[in-house]
């Protein structure tokens, strides 16, 4: 097989060297060049035609986000961001994903050489997944998110014990896919529980960003809190989220147990708990993502009577998790991303028949 050609862009000579060494160990990857800033990267992209770009989020001479935005409009290609484990780095990385970056890896704060060595497997797997990703050109300039307060939004007039629950899981490409789903939900939508594979240091910034984009109240779940309509719940950093039944209502259970499918939080953990606690009252979806986390949980939900669907291959950044669910027979419907929010609401209304049943 022809190796994947990678261009490493980072202002740190140490990181450029280490990334080159780590990626070059895999026979399926060839590092064709490195660049210390976006201006040099632009010339090397023209000359070397890489398949994948690794890009530091904070770059000299040109704003990294401005470079990415121009790249995705004029010459769209798979980009894996390399970001720092800081609050500022998390915010920039989430903006980069909104501009079309496929995925990201994090640099350790201290001991870069040892830290990157420990992340070697993750870096290689994400570069390979990015090479297979579906990248689309930006149709128009993207307005950067600002930390300014969002305009007031309508909130459900009263809260009631919900009898329907929506569960969603995602990984690579999921930060944007989840945003698309939540921003189309009304303020009184059925309660939503979500799991997205994301480093713990990025979790709070991700939740805050989703909250700015949604009429629902998007929050970090706390252990034991009631699950209410009009609310979307994500787990706190480096914890699983489970749903437990408490009489006629559901509550959040936060679990710091071992990783499942190499992830904490894991989609299968959430889906397994929803199948046990909600069963046929649940509607579940697996969105874009690498690997197979969530596939078995979605099958368990389908067997429990829940309506199940997955994002289609054409609109997924990486069709790993949805594809695995399809192979297991867990998905009753396969839909493009833009149709998923309305379909989730239809199915949660309890009046629709699932295609293929």
From TrEMBL:
UniProt PTM: Phosphorylated by CheA. Phosphorylation of the N-terminal regulatory domain activates the methylesterase activity.
Keyword Cytoplasm: yes
Keywords from the named record: Chemotaxis, Cytoplasm, Hydrolase, Phosphoprotein
UniProt domain Response regulatory: residue ranges: 5-122
InterPro entries attached to this UniProt entry: CheB-like, CheB_C, CheY-like_superfamily, Sig_transdc_resp-reg_Me-estase, Sig_transdc_resp-reg_receiver
Keyword Cytoplasm recorded: yes
Location of the CheB-type methylesterase domain: 159-346
Record PTM 4-aspartylphosphate, positions in chain: 56
Function: Involved in chemotaxis. Part of a chemotaxis signal transduction system that modulates chemotaxis in response to various stimuli. Catalyzes the demethylation of specific methylglutamate residues introduced into the chemoreceptors (methyl-accepting chemotaxis proteins or MCP) by CheR. Also mediates the irreversible deamidation of specific glutamine residues to glutamic acid.
NCBIfam families to which the protein is assigned, alphabetical: PRK00742.1, PRK12555.1
Record-linked HAMAP family: CheB_chemtxs
Name of the protein: Protein-glutamate methylesterase/protein-glutamine glutaminase
Organism of provenance: Pseudoxanthomonas broegbernensis
Chain's gene name: cheB
